[in-house]
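Exercise 3.2. Students should predict the tertiary structure of the chain below and write it as structure tokens, then compare their answer with the key that follows.

Predict this chain's 3D structure.
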Amino acid sequence: MFYLFPPAVLGFAAVILPVILRHQIFPYRDTLFPVLRSGVEKLSLLSVIGLFLAGLLAGIKSPFRPSVNGLLTMSLFPVIAIADMIFYPTSHNLWPLEFVVYLLLTIPGIIGAYTGRFLGGKIFKE
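Answer key:
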């Protein structure tokens, strides 16, 4: 069994690609990753659909459970937020709420991963 689509990378791309494509990157001063911050603060329906697709692709032939794949779609965001908090201590004043939002944003990835597992089972008949 092979594992083609790492969900953390796909989830990261799902959030930042709509911002890059719409040229809505804002020059934030107190962050290590202004593109990522723009993506999170300007989250769109396209990003949520991207998170679903990230879970779907990750769930097709994954050795992990679909719920784990869904959680992994947003796993880089808390890590990056912690790095931001280390370098800019006043940048994430509402970090517990931010982490709850990240947890809620795993729902499209989880649904996508279960859909991918179902479709992968139908396609590959293992």
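Discussion points: The first helix runs from residue 7 to 21. The chain is about 70% helix and 0% strand.
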